[in-house]
Design a protein that fits this description.
- The chain has about 450 residues and is mainly beta.
- It folds into two domains: about 130 residues, Galactose-binding domain-like (Jelly Rolls); about 250 residues, no CATH class.
- Helices cover about 10% and strands about 45% of the residues.
- The strands form five sheets. Strands 18-19-16-15-14-23-12-26-29 form a nine-stranded antiparallel beta sheet. Strands 13, 17, 20, 21, 22, 24, 25, 27 and 28 form a nine-stranded antiparallel beta sheet that branches. The chain has a five-stranded antiparallel beta sheet with strand order 2-5-10-7-8.
- The chain is elongated and about 75 Å long.
Length: about 450
């Protein structure tokens, strides 16, 4: 009797299992106890999409790597050693949920590593259609920029995949996010924000004097450390490549299109015309200036009395303890002394926009047409459209150890609000230079 009862109970359980299976039920404790079956986990709802086209850089790659960032994102991803870094800014600490928008091309499956502020996750990609892959969740300790690194792990074909965007959600991404979202200006966003200091100078300024120092380690490739800018041109130092540096003095063509012409130039100075962001005359000297050294700059503007103005420039090389002449340019349809004296800091290579740079500016003076030197101690800190529109927030400027400074690039957290004015302590000693005897 007991054997038959056990067999009967066994048959009932088997029948119940078959019924549940046929009806699509789940063999879980909750299902068997009469609770509703558990459905698939709800998909993460992301509240922001950060496109790689304006926010990503190849930050590590071999010389033979083929990867590139275009307006659509990361493409030609073949090399496992290549690291692509994506940056965006959060206004508060908290939890951050993260997704990756990608598709496969040239492979049927791949695994990629996604590292968020140092925390790694492996993500398996499959399928040729673009879709969002949930990556994981991290805790953000403080407001500021978040760095996301992408690196290949394995693939069964030629490519790890194409990545167009990352998606974010969570309390850290609930409000106040900043990243490049103007697709028409991704090039400028990837170059980074340009910043300026605009000096307060007296009228009839014929000569402007400035001292510039690039701190050690802040001389990134693509940097232009511009010391003496004015209405019509600019003069400063550039990092062209790992092996070449310039002193550069340029004067725009006249507002009516009349061409600026060279009057004379210094030894080994190259002169030509420039285009792109306007047109004009350019004079440069290939010169291996050094970070940490202080260079002195003088610019001069003198109307010629015939409807044009002569603009000239010199710099003091501490390596040789001598002033060097750059060039004199004649700008037509212009009759003015120096106006709009300013300095700026910019990156001119878009692929190097993730690198940081800094400039120190001290001991500014203006000399009027009567030969009187006046110390310049006031400036206003401003930025370009990339900074104004908050496409990038890694910029700063102000006063540091008695000198004006500017900083940009590198995705640092503590930006300085644009439009502020700063005053440096007066030094009281005019430049020790006889402008009449300059070469």
């Amino acid at each position: 009797m007991r054997l038959r009862q056990r067999m009967g109970i066994h048959m009932i359980i088997v029948s119940l299992f078959s019924l549940l299976t046929a009806c699509g039920g789940q063999t879980t404790a909750s299902s068997l106890s009469g609770n509703s079956p558990a459905g698939p986990p709800a998909a993460t709802v992301y509240n922001a999409t950060v496109n790689l086209g304006g926010n990503a850089f190849i930050t590590s790659a071999s010389s033979s790597a083929s990867e590139m960032i275009n307006d659509s994102g990361l493409a030609n991803w073949t090399n496992a050693s290549t690291v692509t870094s994506v940056y965006f800014r959060l206004a508060q600490a908290g939890q951050l949920k993260f997704g990756l928008v990608a598709r496969l091309a040239g492979s049927t499956m791949s695994t990629v590593k996604v590292t968020i502020n140092g925390t790694p996750f492996n993500v398996n990609l499959s399928g040729a259609s673009s879709k969002t892959y949930d990556v994981g969740t991290v805790n953000i300790a403080a407001a500021g920029y978040v760095k996301v690194d992408l690196q290949g792990v394995s693939k069964n074909g030629d490519y790890f995949g194409d990545v167009s965007a990352i998606k974010i959600a969570g309390t850290a991404a609930s409000t106040g996010m900043n990243y490049a979202n103007d697709a028409a200006n991704y090039y400028w966003s990837r170059r980074g924000p340009s910043v300026h200091v605009n000096y307060v100078t007296p009228t009839n300024t014929e000569y402007f004097y400035n001292e510039l120092t690039v701190p050690a380690g802040q001389d990134s490739i693509g940097s232009y450390f511009m010391a003496n800018g004015f209405g019509g041109g600019y003069f400063g130092m550039q990092v062209k490549s790992t092996t070449e540096r310039w002193m550069l003095f340029s004067v725009w063509d006249a507002d009516n299109g009349a061409k600026t012409t060279l009057i004379r130039k210094g030894p080994n100075v190259v002169d030509n015309t420039f285009g792109g962001e306007g047109t004009g005359g350019q004079a440069y000297l290939v010169y291996n200036w050094l970070a940490g050294n202080t260079y002195k700059f003088i610019t001069k503007a003198t109307p010629d009395g015939a409807g044009s103005t002569l603009f000239s420039a010199w710099f003091y090389a501490p390596e040789t303890a001598a002033w060097r002449f750059m060039a004199s340019w004649k700008r037509p349809s212009t009759s003015t002394y120096l106006t709009g004296s300013h300095s700026f800091l910019e990156n001119f290579i878009d692929t190097k926009g993730y690198l940081g740079r800094k400039i120190l500016l001290g001991n500014q003076w203006a000399r009027n047409t009567s030969g009187v030197w006046s110390e310049v101690t006031q400036m206003k800190f401003t930025g370009d459209a990339t900074a104004i529109n908050k496409q990038r927030m890694d910029f700063a400027g102000g006063l540091e150890n008695g000198k004006f400074y500017m900083r940009n690039g590198g995705f640092f957290a503590d930006y300085v609000t644009l439009g502020q004015s700063f005053t440096r302590p007066a030094l009281g000693t005019a430049p020790n230079v006889d402008v009449v005897t300059l070469p």
